[in-house]
Amino acid sequence: MTEAEETYYTEERWHNWLSRVEEEDLDPENEDSARLLLNLQDDAAIAIAKIVSAYEDDRLDDDEAIDELERVRTIVLSEPELDIEDDAAREDKEMLVDGVQTSLVCVFYAAEEYIVAGAAEEVPLTEYVEAAAAAEAEDDMDAALGYLVQAGTRIIHGDELDMAIAEDLEYGLVSEWVNGLDSLQSAMSDPEVVEEED
Q1: For a pLDDT cut of 90, what percent of the chain falls above it?
Q2: Is the pLDDT of residue 55 over 90?
Q3: 119 vs 22, 111, 113, 176, CA distance in Å?
Q4: Average confidence (pLDDT) over 106-123
Q5: Nearest 10 degrees: CA dihedral of 29, 36, 53, 51?
Q6: pTM summary value
Q7: What's the whole-number mean pLDDT along residues 139-156?
Q8: Which residue would you say has higher pLDDT here, 4 or 182?
Q9: Structural contact between residues 89 and 21, judged by C-beta atoms closer than 8 angstroms
Q10: Closest CA to 52 of 5, 122, 107, 11
C-alpha cells in the first residue's frame, strides 16, 4: 500500500462504514442514525480536504492530487453492496447511502475545480446557493451544480457558508449538495478523522 493510500482513504475504511450501516437499524429521524450517516459523509469529506491540503502544501502536484481524488471518488461513489437479506431493508439503507454519495458529488467536483483552476470569483457564498436553487427551479441541474462547485472552491479557499440558508431550500439535489458543502466546510476547518468506533 502506498503512503497516499494510507494517508487519505482506503476501500477497507469505506466498507467498515457500510458494515456499520448494515448492522444498525437506521431511521433518518433518529439522532444516532443521522449521526452515523453524517459521520460516513464527514469522513469522506475529511479525506478530500486532506488531499487538497497536501496539494496546497506542495506534497502533491496537480496530477497526483487529481489522481488521488479520483481514487477516493471511485471508492466512495461506487454502488453500495449491502449484505442484507430483507430486500426492503436493503433498499432503504442503499437509498440512505445514496443520499450521502449524492451530497459528496459536489465536494469531489469542487476539490478538482480548485486544483485545476483555483478559487472562483469572490462573491457572497449565499449568492452561489441562491443561483443554484434558481437553476434547479428551471431544471438546469448542470448550472445548479456548477454554482455550488464554485461555492465549494471558495470554501476551500477559506470563505464560510452560513448554513442557515439551507433551511430555505426545497428538498432536492441542491439541498443535498449544500449538505455536502457543509461537510467540506467542517473538514477544511477541522480535518480530524472521524472514529469508526464512535
Answers
A1: 77
A2: yes
A3: 38, 10, 8, 22
A4: 97
A5: -120
A6: 0.91
A7: 98
A8: 182
A9: no
A10: 107
Joined together, the cell numbers standing for residue 176 give 443535498
Q: Which of 126, 166, 134, 172 is nearest to 150 (CA)?
A: 126
- The answer to whether 14 touches 80, Cβ cutoff 8 Å, is no
Give me the mean pLDDT over the 124-141 stretch: 97
Q: What is the mean pLDDT of residues 13-29?
A: 88
Q: 180: closest CA among 161, 157, 196, 159?
A: 161
The span from the CA of 109 to the CA of 100, in Å, is: 15
1, burial (CB in 10 Å: exposed 0-12, middle 13-18, buried 19+): exposed
Counted residue by residue, the chain has a size of 198
Beta strands in the chain (DSSP E): none
Taking each helix axis from N to C end, the angle separating 11-23 and 62-76, rounded to the nearest 10 degrees, works out to 20
Domain ranges in the chain are 3-189
Rounded Cα gap, residues 173 and 177, in angstroms:
6
Confidence category of residue 192, pLDDT binned at 50, 70, 90:
low
The residue to which cell 442484507 is assigned: 84
Q: At what angle do helices 87-117 and 141-157 cross, to 10 degrees?
A: 60
Phi, psi at residue 16, to the nearest 5°? Answer: -65, -40
